[in-house]
Every structure is written in C-alpha cells, then in structure tokens.
Amino acid sequence: MSTSVPVRLVLASQSPARRKLLQAAGIEPDVLVSGVDESQVVSDRAEDLCLELARLKTQAVRDRLRPSPDERTLVLGCDSVLAFDGEILGKPDDAADATRRWQRMRGHSGVLHTGHCLIDVTHESRAEAVASTIVHFADVSDDEIAAYVATGEPLAVAGAFTIDGLGGAFLTGIEGDPGTVVGLSLPLLRRLLAEVELSIVDLWTKVAPGGQEFEHLG
Questions:
Q1: Which pLDDT band, with edges at 50, 70 and 90, does 69 fall under?
Q2: What pTM, to 2 d.p., does this model score?
Q3: Is 70 a catalytic residue?
Q4: Which of 11, 76, 159, 215 could join 82 via S-S bond, C-beta 3.0 to 4.6 A?
Q5: Average pLDDT, stretch 139-155?
Q6: What is the pLDDT of residues 106-134, one digit of tens each?
Q7: How far apart are CA 177 and CA 155, in angstroms?
Q8: What is the pLDDT of residue 3?
Q9: Rounded-to-integer distance, Cα 109 and Cα 92, Å
Q10: Cβ atoms 211, 166 nearer than 8 A
Q11: Residues 74, 119: contact at Cβ < 8 Å?
C-alpha cells in the first residue's frame, strides 16, 4: 500500500492538540481551518452528530484544494462530542455552563465520541468512522472546578475537559483509545488510510519525534 509520490495530509481543524498528536506520531500535517458553523447540524445521536460535523469540515476544506500531480493529497476532518446522562455536550457556552457540567459529571462517567472523515482528493475516495472512549471523571471539589474553569481550558474543548492538559488530573481513567479523547484516534486513522489503499507509514516524515533520523518505509 506504499505510494511512489509524496503524501500530503491536510488537517481540517484548528485544534493544536490534534496537530500535536499527529506530529508526535511522525506526521507533519498542513492545517486549513474549515470555518464550518457547527450549530447548523442537529442530531439526537452523538455518533451521528460528530461524524456529520467531521464530514462537513473535511468537505469544506477539500473544496478549497486542487490536487497536484506531484503529490497525493488527503484531507482529514474530526469532531468530538461527549455523551453524558442522555445529553450531547460539545463546547460549553461560557464559564457558568462549564461549571454546571463539571458539577454534574464529577464522580460519574461519559462517552467521548470522535468522528473522523478522510478524503483522498487525488483519487476522489473517502473513508469515515467514529471512535468512542469511556471517560471516568474524578469526584472533584467545587474549589477545583472553579480553579479549572478559571484557566479557560474547559471552555475550548468538547465536554469541557481535556486528557492531555490540566483536565487530565480530574479523570480517574478511560476505557479505549486516549487519542479519541484528545480528538483524533491514530489506530482509527490507520484503518481509514488502509481503506484508501495507503499505509500510515506513507505519512511519516524523514525525522522522527525527538530528531532521530530514519529511513522512510513507504
């Protein structure tokens, strides 16, 4: 499944966490923000909502690209939502909303769903799927919630928490791929790449994380 031309991955997301996750895995994406209005999509199922939003983001960026004969161009869009107590939770509206959520979530569990849509611009094909991970929240105090919300971190992320930032201390565990909670599942990305007849090693750069040189396997 290797390719004879360079593979360009365009990440249709402004999330620094998603980009950092890819970089740590040896993949250097280009970033192009989709500008999609997420409020336009409504669904009763968290899995359907996050996947539809991922599709819209990916397609919006794909429409702005023109494939080059000198490279194979892919666009990856992702979107995350938290399913908790029968509700679908995206980013909080404000600090008060984030505080209320944490007061409800503490000591309980939710499911973080991340939709992934991969479009092969060069070959006009696509692959998509949802990754889901169970998240267990610590029984944090009111003071801890107030301090966390005051940092602003929970206001910028789905579910009002992170696993790779300050919020990681307020989780007691997860069941599933931690990348899903960050916003991008690398094992799922590998499967989607296989569906468009590529290997994840085709996206590896010449320099591994930490600066070690390695030979490209693609």
A1: confident
A2: 0.91
A3: no
A4: 159
A5: 98
A6: 999 999 999 999 999 999 999 999 999 99
A7: 23
A8: 63
A9: 18
A10: no
A11: yes
Determine the angle formed by the axes of helices 95-105 and 142-151, rounding to 10 degrees. 140
Architecture of the domain whose range is 7-203? Alpha-Beta Complex (3.90)
Residue ranges of the domains in the chain? 7-203
Query: What are the residue ranges of helices labelled H in the chain?
Result: 16-24, 46-62, 95-105, 142-151, 178-182, 186-195
Q: Find all residues with CB under 8 Å of 103, minimum gap 6, and list them.
A: 142, 145
Report which DSSP code applies to 196: T
Q: Among the options 30, 44, 79, 202, which is catalytic?
A: 79
Query: Per the structure block, which two tokens stand in for 121?
Result: 């611009």
Average pLDDT score over the chain? 92
d(CA 170, CA 106): 9
Sequence-separated (6 or more) residues with CB below 8 Å from residue 38 = 53, 79, 90
Bridge partners of 116, per DSSP, are 78, 129
**Phi and psi (nearest 5°) for 96?**
-65, -40
Give the mean model confidence (pLDDT) for residues 17-24.
Answer: 96
Q: At which residue do the structure tokens 């979107």 appear? A: 79
Q: Which token pair is 149?
A: 């919300």
